[in-house]
Amino acid sequence: MPNDGQAPSSLNQSLLCVQQLRKVREKGGHRFELHVPSLMIRSGEFIAFVGASGCGKSTLLDMLGLVMRPTSAEVFTLHLAHRLESYHIMELSEDALADIRRSEIGYVLQTGGLLPFLTVQENLLLPCRLNGMVNMEPEIHMLIERLGIGDQLTKKPQFLSCGQRQRVAIARALVHHPSLVLADEPTAAVDKPAAIDIRDTFKALTQQMGVTLCMVTHDESLVADVVDRTFIFDVNKLSLYETYGLCHERD
User: Engineered SS bond to 55: which of 89, 111, 130, 233, CB 3.0-4.6 Å?
Assistant: First the structure.
């Protein structure tokens, strides 16, 4: 629920606060538990979540993106300074979560996640239309120019290269000025030079727009020198049917 009495200065201290978050997933007799003891993300930071496949990176990103609910959490709070409100995520209805996702969160999937039946331009306009935003041409033009996709606007995603799809997905994630952008292995489908170029452009744009960026990757070398902080995942096989994952900040 929103805390209407919060002072703006306190809301500026962080964007997301998590304490003792746990997610248990069970399938086919196998149980996986992800534990995040503490995670505090400040507005404007570039955060990396690094780990091997199956460690829980995407699960955590889905929880931070309000797509998946944790099994439990002592604290899971989203502070939106421009709204002067603080939301306790575990207490919100599905409709309230959907509203925050639509207006405050951008998402870039490993394969882009573009709608295949829309052109590039239509994909870019979609978040603006969903949020009732008009006169966004200057913002869209800036993103198109910075990401070098001006000659792709009339194409549908199937006719784009992997790198072009990711650039369009980044533009779509940023166009409605969200507070938080989550990127799940956004450079996995391109070669290293293209990955570095996409990484640098992504970082520059989020810094320019004041957007917080959380990126999942298995390649720590890609983000080691550019992120503000890195969180890693330790995974232990407790038994044949039970696995435990721990997410913690790298010292």
Answer: 233
Per-residue pLDDT at 174 exceeds 50 = yes
- Tokens found for residue 216: 């999942």
Write out pLDDT tens, residues 21-70: 999 999 888 999 999 999 999 999 999 999 988 899 999 999 999 999 99
Per-residue pLDDT at 11 exceeds 50: no
CB 130 within 8 A of CB 97: no
Ordered by start, the domain boundaries in the chain are 8-249
Quick count: other Cβ atoms within 10 Å of Cβ 89? 22
CA–CA distance, 162 with 140 (Å, rounded to integer): 21
Per-residue model confidence (pLDDT) at position 136 = 85
Could you tell me the two tokens for 202? 């992504």
- Using an 8 Å Cβ cutoff, are 165 and 192 in contact? no
Residues in a beta bridge with 214: 47, 182
SS3 189: coil
Distance separating alpha carbons of residues 132 and 53, to the nearest angstrom: 38
* Token couple for 7: 């002072």
The rounded Cα 63 to chain-centroid distance in angstroms is 10
- pLDDT for 203 equals 94
Q: Are 121 and 154 in contact (CB under 8 A)?
A: yes
Neighbours of 216 (CB within 10 A): 23
What count of residues does the chain have?
251
